[in-house]
# Entry
Amino acid sequence: MFSLLSRPTTTLLLGTCKGETAAHVAFDDNFPPAYVHIKVDANNTPMVQFVIHELIHVILSELVLGKFDETLEEVIVVSLDSYMWAFVSNSKPRLAKWNALIEKKLAEEPVKLKSIEEVVDRSREKSQ
Ligand SMILES: [Zn+2]
# Structure
């Protein structure tokens, strides 16, 4: 999952997502997909968890396509994302590694916020 996000053909953008969704992923029909575009709503944290959630959609795409409907796919992805998020967030070095990669990916795009910290700080202010 980390290597999928690391690839140069995987892009990560901050932006406003339509409707209720906090994040969105688009990818081509190859398996594994050649190109992956992830968009995460800047107001949603922890961002790592949202990115992991979208990466799970990509990884499971071939497995679930034609076997589970969208609702069931979401149930599967959410349960795996909870597990993965616990795994990542329970280790400070692991979480730092993910945050650093996300920051690097965001820096690859011309229009975005400066850093993951800026995003986190903003949402903390909002929730207080
Ligand atoms: Zn989802």
